[in-house]
Amino acid sequence: MNPALPAQPPRRAAILREIGLGPLWLLRSRDAARAEAALKAKAALPASSAADVEISPSAARPQPAAPQAILPGPQAPSRLQPSAVPAGATAGKAAPQRDAGREQRIASLDWEGLEEEIRSCRACVLCERRKQAVPGVGDRNAQWMLVGEGPGAEEDLRGEPFVGQAGKLLDNMLAAVGLKRGEGVYIANAVKCRPPHNRTPESGEIDSCLPFLARQIELVQPKLLVALGRPAAQALLNMEVRIGAARGHVFRYRDTPVLITYHPAYLLRNPQDKSKAWEDLCFARRIMGGLPQP
Ligand code: URA
């Protein structure tokens, strides 16, 4: 064992082994200071210019040059801000018809009304084959909010996000940075109904579900949003995202910092990237350290 590394408690070591990581890495305090300074500097800007802006390259590790194309400009619209969405702003496919009345109604719902609305939603084809919709789970006053892609078979059956294999890995990843589902953490998905055969949700399906996610974020008011995988990142940021280039950068959804990392299901198929997800969560941890606590 490297004598420079602190001894790890057995449970922590077991969790790290479980998510495919070796000995715990030491966090470098210099990095934490840089991450904090970047956030503080950005917090000083007026809200309008802070929306969706990439605010700092990773303080966690050396960065590959981030292609400008993936980074939003200062005025990049959030898909979740109705007033900021220009017609046809949806990347890729044509933007679906917006139902402003529906969006406004959802935006005024309380938790119970929102979950009821989600469970009875028939706004897109995903409702046709679901067993049940999966609104979200966790601490409604959480500082951390994780956004996944959409329910899989087990989630569809049980009505809770991330309860299958990917969920087990997610729980272990959270535990590795001292977090626990339901304790200061809220978990939701970009779409609330299972896409058939676990296919990636289409942009129109994500758009139909966005008012729900927007309301969840508004109700939770997290200090940090973590997008798990590309569909979640694209839902939050309304732009094309490549995870490899976007991870390690801080984006914004309205005033809330957004980090992007790999989806746990991807990590199950590509375990060699688990260490990168671990880096991302350590980076998130450091950012949270720099944010005001309640
Ligand atoms: N994958 C997701 O993105 N969400 C879930 O809830 C389960 C698997």
How are the strands of the largest sheet arranged? 1-3-2-4-6-5
Distance between the termini: 39 Å
CATH class: Alpha Beta
Tally of DSSP helical segments: 12
Average pLDDT for all residues? 78
CATH fold node name: Uracil-DNA Glycosylase, subunit E
Task: Count the domains.
Answer: 1
Tell me about this structure:
This protein is an alpha/beta fold and 294 residues long. The chain has a single domain, classed as 3-Layer(aba) Sandwich (Uracil-DNA Glycosylase, subunit E), CATH 3.40.470.10. It contains 12 helices and 6 strands. The protein has a 6-stranded mixed sheet, sandwiched between helices. A hairpin with a 2-residue loop joins strand 5 and strand 6. Helix 1 crosses helix 7, helix 2 packs across helix 12 and helix 4 packs parallel to helix 8. The radius of gyration is 19 Å and the shape is globular. The N and C termini lie far apart (39 Å). The N terminus is likely disordered.
In terms of topology, how is this protein built?
Layout: H1 10-18, H2 29-43, H3 47-50, H4 100-107, H5 111-119, E1 136-138, E2 144-148, H6 153-158, H7 165-176, E3 185-189, H8 203-220, E4 224-228, H9 230-237, H10 243-246, E5 251-253, E6 256-261, H11 264-269, H12 274-289
Parallel strand pairs: 2-3, 2-4, 4-6
Antiparallel strand pairs: 1-3, 5-6
Helix pairs in contact: 1-7, 2-12, 4-8
Bound molecules: uracil (URA).
